[in-house]
TrEMBL record:
It holds the Pfam family Hist_deacetyl. This is Acetoin utilization deacetylase AcuC-like enzyme. It comes from Mucilaginibacter oryzae. The lineage of its organism: Bacteria, Pseudomonadati, Bacteroidota, Sphingobacteriia, Sphingobacteriales. It comes from the Bacteria. The keyword Hydrolase applies. Belongs to the histone deacetylase family. InterPro entries: HDAC_classIV, HDACs, His_deacetylse_dom, His_deacetylse_dom_sf, Ureohydrolase_dom_sf. GO terms for biological process: epigenetic regulation of gene expression.
Length: 300
């Protein structure tokens, strides 16, 4: 069964000027339900993540500043959001949803979080709409509970997964792979185990050619036993924050290739949605929904 983490808090209302990025979190499950891709039984609402799990990935002092709403104003501006108790609750539910998704992925092959992909959050900082790094937290949860030994994080958002790279820079058990726009935020990059910076305006064929040449070799070389996939749709030509130029068809082909490689190698995969900032919300929702549809077709 396709299991998808979703909670109403994902669409947490924000002050004017911050609401648009949140709309997709309501619209994605609504669209999937409308099209009959899923039913309500496919959706589950995650609980609150335990503090001791958070601090296996994030520094205690940083977490306490989030929890107690004492994060300095300068650091709040870096996140892009005004800090609030509801926003912190949202973040910990997202991270718990990604952990729950790991359990479902182990059982069914794949599982989704409608939100997540908060890859700019480092061990002691938040940045770029990210406070807690959901896939990093979940990867450490798998490792610390001896459920997996070798993890591959495939980050295909248009932005480098700088927080994820920093968190795992000294952990050989987690291989971080980020293929992103060279000239996109963050302008100060961290060092992933493999970074592939892409030129502005890259074509569908060049993008997919690069991915298909690299990913099978990564899997063969590093032999992961679990995969996290960050499937941002800000690679689209329509995206107002991205500088790549992919079509929706290429974005869908990207997803299909990642899932096919996971299936071929018997690798469970947890998928978090990542970014998408096209001016037309329909472009964002349709591209994200394609990721779910591809998985439903391949796995179920």
């Amino acid at each position: 069964m396709l299991k998808i983490a979703y909670d109403p808090s994902y669409a947490h209302p924000l002050p004017e000027g911050h609401r648009f990025p949140m709309l997709k979190y309501e619209l994605i499950p609504d669209q999937l339900l409308h099209e009959g891709v899923i039913t309500s039984t496919n959706l589950f609402s995650p609980g609150l993540l335990a503090e001791n799990v958070i601090t296996q990935t994030h520094d205690v002092d940083y977490w306490h500043q989030l929890r107690d709403l004492t994060l300095p104003a300068k650091e709040q501006r870096r996140t892009g959001f005004p800090l609030s108790a509801r926003l912190v609750e949202r973040e910990i539910r997202i991270a718990q949803g990604t952990i729950d998704g790991c359990r479902f992925a182990a059982e069914y092959g794949v599982a989704f979080n409608v939100a997540g992909g908060t890859h700019h959050a480092g061990s002691n900082w938040g940045e770029g709409f990210c406070l807690l790094n959901d896939q990093a937290i979940a990867a450490n949860w798998l490792l610390n509970n001896n459920l997996n030994n070798s993890i591959l994080i495939i980050d295909l958002d248009v932005h480098q997964g700088n927080g994820t790279a920093q968190i795992f820079e000294n952990d050989a058990r987690v291989f971080t792979f980020s293929m992103h726009g060279a000239n996109n935020f963050p302008y100060r990059k961290e060092k992933s185990d493999l970074d592939i910076p892409l030129a502005d305006g890259i074509s569908d064929d060049e993008y997919l050619g690069t991915l298909t040449a690299v990913l099978p070799q990564l899997i063969a070389r590093h032999q992961p036993d679990f995969v996290f996939y960050l499937s941002g749709v800000d690679i689209l030509a329509t995206d107002k924050l991205g500088k790549l130029a992919l079509t929706r068809e290429a974005c869908k082909a990207r997803d299909q290739f990642v899932f096919e490689q996971c299936i071929k190698n018997g690798l469970p995969v947890q998928v978090s949605m990542g970014g998408g900032y096209s001016p037309d919300i329909g472009d964002i929702v349709d591209a994200h929904c394609n990721t779910f549809k591809v998985a439903a077709d391949l796995y179920f």
